[in-house]
Amino acid sequence: MTLLAETSAVMTKTRELCAAIADDAHFTKLQQAVERFLSDDGARLMYQTVHQRGEELHHKQHSGVKLAPTEIREFEAARDALMSNEVAAAFLDAQDELESLQKTIGKYVNMTLELGRVPTEQDIAESEKGGCCGGGGCGC
């Protein structure tokens, strides 16, 4: 039997982890914030506008073009308005937290595969500082 077989211990525990995440009250709250944002056309449009304008300014700046103070002020005002929108702010917070959860779980799984054991707190701390397996400096 392989690790990916439907009845393997690894797949059973993977489904248990997924169930624990899906059943968590805080996760449900984060999902609701995302769904609320997706159903709010005004918040979505505001987000898209700020995101696109930020990309435009970023590309302009990296092309060597100096940004005009009015461009910066207008962008900052739009960003501030976005952050003061309760639905959009909750979405952005939820998005950050969900991405952090995904990265943390991924880090543990990746380090387990690399180390051949469950990573310790010290292993995780070293990887965050760019240590052996985090920075790739030891051939991991």
TrEMBL record:
SUPFAM superfamilies registered for this protein in UniProt: YheA/YmcA-like
Alphabetical list of Pfam families matching this protein: Com_YlbF (PF06133)
InterPro entries: Com_YlbF, YheA/YmcA-like_dom_sf
Highest taxon of source: Bacteria
Protein name: YlbF family regulator
Provenance organism: Luteolibacter arcticus
